[in-house]
């Protein structure tokens, strides 16, 4: 028998065949991007889906198969599937080049509409996303639910994944939606717009949320959250379409409002709260000690740098003794009151000699501040409570002619003194505050750190101002008394407000030149601020509308007929 094992001519003849088989093998096995040629900048397109979009009477044991125009990066499909109604066990996703197969562990429910979505998160190996949202719907019953809810999400953080969740009411909504699984989830597009389709008849509670990761199911304090102004959103018929359910992402508290701790330091008790406080509303809080007829509180103030902290100075307490404190009238920065039993705490008082001198911490306006309003409120914030017998005799505010101007004063809290000039200041002029602190001291008798304080600032040039006038037109004429207009210069600028007249007419004066953005909301509680609602207990946000148009203000010029439809 002839052997070819070591025959060189046989091996040489066989080499092209082996090389061809290797090329075919590796060409079929490779799942990565093809090499060479022009750069691929086009995302994969959905060519077909089974069951077809809108199909009815689908078998409850079906698989879902999506076919794309090019190979899919597996993780982009595996990490971004949203299916509603939500499944107890997430389905299995298999990616084989252009084909994505979704397999369920359990049979689907009968007479139910299912919605499968990936948003625009499906990508090819070049990280190009699909040009359109990938979503499909089918029903295991005879008909497909056709209810729709749509709207827009504003103030979306950069590089975040934003979705809108919908919770369908059974007998009642869940006590807290924080730990509840949403019944429907839809992705928010790059333009902030979203749409729920194929919703069943019923009542829905909606929530918008942003995250740094594409798949998340637990809401944390770091997530920007938004609630709508409408709750519940009701799909009355199978074909009901509801538009303009909008959201504005921001901070919403998910923790309980309470006193977290109390630390005795230098004869004062520092309270730590779970939320930032409304310094204006909380400054008149009533602090009492259980078992004492008269309050031993000498001074109470909120930390200027971090309003989650407040300080209390006592008199008449016994060292090394345990006391229980109750704080009434404490309000967080969303307007929620601190309630029993979260307004109480127990601490051990330890008396220690205080030898630290008080000093000035911060001022408003800042030292050498410019473009200060001609009707300013001058605020002096100290490091601790300071005793000033008569600020009118130890503090002087001099005008541009070096003559003193009259002013009023009041204590905002234990360590913040507010000075208000009685008359409008002159435009584009320098003012100087001079304080002789020789008689100032803290409650321990420590004399003020500096014997003389000075603060200079320069007022605005009113000739550089412009103005805006116009009208707000509302669908409900009776709503005008609650309408509030918010305007700001730049995305990080301070939001100022003005209320239009009953006719809808408004005027905004003393505006510095620049571009201004507008928003309008219905101020239901009359606090002058837009309220985003609450998660616990659930409370819908105040109705609002943001406008993309920027209004340009020029010096010494009225920008007229700036009208808004609300």
Write a brief caption for the model:
By secondary structure, the chain is mostly beta strands.
Protein described:
The protein is mainly β and 566 residues long. The chain has four domains: 46-219, Immunoglobulin-like; 259-349, Immunoglobulin-like (Sandwich), CATH 2.60.40; 360-461, Sandwich (Immunoglobulin-like); 465-565, Immunoglobulin-like. 6% of the residues lie in helices and 39% in strands. The protein contains four helices and 39 strands. The strands form ten sheets. Strands 9, 10, 12, 13 and 14 form a five-stranded antiparallel beta sheet that branches. A hairpin with a 2-residue loop joins strand 28 and strand 29.
Give descriptors for this structure.
4-stranded antiparallel sheet; 566 residues; 5-stranded antiparallel sheet; Immunoglobulin-like; mainly beta
**Which percent band covers the strand fraction?**
35-45%
- Termini separation comes to 97 Å
Overall helicity:
under 10%
- Alpha-beta classification: mainly beta
Reported for the largest beta sheet, the result is:
5 strands, antiparallel
Task: Detail the topology: elements first, then pairings.
Elements: H1 8-29, E1 46-50, E2 64-68, H2 74-78, E3 82-84, E4 92-96, E5 99-103, E6 113-119, E7 134-139, E8 147-154, E9 161-168, E10 184-187, E11 193-199, E12 202-211, E13 225-226, E14 233-235, E15 241-242, E16 247-248, E17 259-265, E18 268-273, H3 279-282, E19 286-289, E20 297-302, E21 309-314, E22 321-328, E23 344-349, E24 360-364, E25 369-372, E26 378-382, H4 391-394, E27 395-398, E28 407-413, E29 416-421, E30 430-436, E31 452-459, E32 466-473, E33 483-489, E34 496-498, E35 505-511, E36 514-522, E37 544-553, E38 558-559, E39 564-565
Parallel strand pairs: 8-15, 8-16, 25-31, 32-38, 32-39
Antiparallel strand pairs: 1-2, 2-5, 3-6, 4-5, 6-7, 8-11, 9-10, 9-12, 12-13, 12-14, 17-18, 18-21, 19-22, 20-21, 22-23, 24-26, 26-29, 27-30, 28-29, 30-31, 32-35, 33-34, 33-36, 36-37
């Amino acid at each position: 028998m002839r052997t070819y094992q070591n025959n060189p001519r046989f091996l040489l003849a066989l080499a092209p065949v082996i090389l061809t088989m290797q090329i075919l093998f590796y060409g079929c096995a490779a799942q990565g991007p093809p090499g060479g040629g022009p750069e691929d900048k086009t995302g994969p397109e959905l060519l077909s889906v089974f069951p077809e979009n809108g199909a009815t009477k689908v078998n409850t044991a079906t698989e879902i198969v999506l076919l794309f125009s090019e190979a899919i990066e597996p993780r982009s499909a595996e990490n971004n599937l949203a299916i509603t109604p939500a499944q107890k066990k997430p389905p299995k996703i298999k990616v084989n080049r252009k084909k994505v197969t979704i397999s369920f562990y359990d049979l689907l429910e009968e007479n139910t509409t299912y919605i499968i979505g990936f948003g625009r998160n499906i990508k090819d190996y070049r990280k190009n996303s699909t040009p359109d949202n990938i979503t499909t719907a089918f029903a295991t019953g005879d008909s497909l639910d056709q209810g729709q809810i749509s709207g827009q999400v504003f103030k979306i953080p950069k590089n975040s994944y934003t979705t809108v969740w919908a919770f369908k009411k059974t007998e009642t909504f869940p006590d807290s939606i924080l730990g509840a699984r949403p019944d429907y989830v839809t992705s928010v597009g790059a333009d902030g717009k979203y749409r729920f389709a194929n919703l069943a008849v019923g009542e829905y509670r909606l929530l918008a949320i942003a995250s740094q990761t594409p798949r998340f199911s637990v809401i944390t304090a770091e997530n920007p959250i938004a609630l709508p102004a409408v709750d519940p959103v009701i799909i009355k018929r199978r074909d009901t379409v509801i538009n303009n359910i909008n959201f504005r992402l921001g901070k919403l508290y998910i923790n309980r409002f309470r006193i977290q701790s109390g630390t005795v330091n230098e004869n004062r008790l520092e309270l730590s709260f779970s939320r930032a406080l409304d310094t204006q509303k909380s400054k008149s809080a009533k602090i009492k000690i259980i078992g004492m007829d008269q309050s031993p509180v000498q001074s109470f103030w909120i930390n200027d740098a971090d309003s989650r902290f407040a300080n209390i100075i006592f008199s008449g307490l016994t060292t090394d003794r345990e006391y229980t404190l109750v704080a009434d009238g404490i309000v967080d920065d969303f307007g929620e009151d601190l309630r029993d039993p979260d307004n109480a705490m127990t601490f051990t008082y330890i008396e220690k000699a205080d030898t630290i001198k008080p000093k000035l911490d911060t001022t408003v306006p800042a030292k050498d501040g410019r473009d200060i309003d001609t009707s300013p409120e001058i605020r002096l914030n100290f490091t601790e409570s300071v005793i000033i017998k008569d600020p009118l005799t130890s503090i002087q505010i001099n005008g541009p002619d070096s003559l003193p101007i009259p002013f009023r004063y009041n204590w905002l809290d234990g360590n913040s003194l507010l000075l208000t000039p009685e008359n409008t200041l002159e435009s584009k002029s320098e003012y100087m505050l001079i304080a002789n602190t020789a008689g100032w001291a803290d409650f321990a008798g420590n004399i003020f750190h500096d014997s003389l304080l000075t603060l200079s600032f320069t007022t605005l040039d009113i000739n550089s101002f412009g103005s805006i006038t116009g009208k707000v037109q509302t669908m409900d004429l009776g709503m005008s008394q609650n309408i509030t207009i918010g305007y700001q210069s730049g995305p990080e600028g301070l939001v100022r407000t003005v209320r239009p007249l009953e006719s809808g007419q408004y005027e905004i004066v003393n505006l510095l030149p620049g571009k201004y953005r507008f928003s309008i909301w219905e101020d239901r509680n009359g606090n002058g601020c837009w309220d985003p609602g609450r998660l616990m207990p659930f409370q819908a946000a105040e109705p609002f509308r943001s406008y993309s148009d920027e209004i340009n203000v020029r010096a010494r010029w009225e920008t007229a007929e700036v009208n808004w439809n609300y």
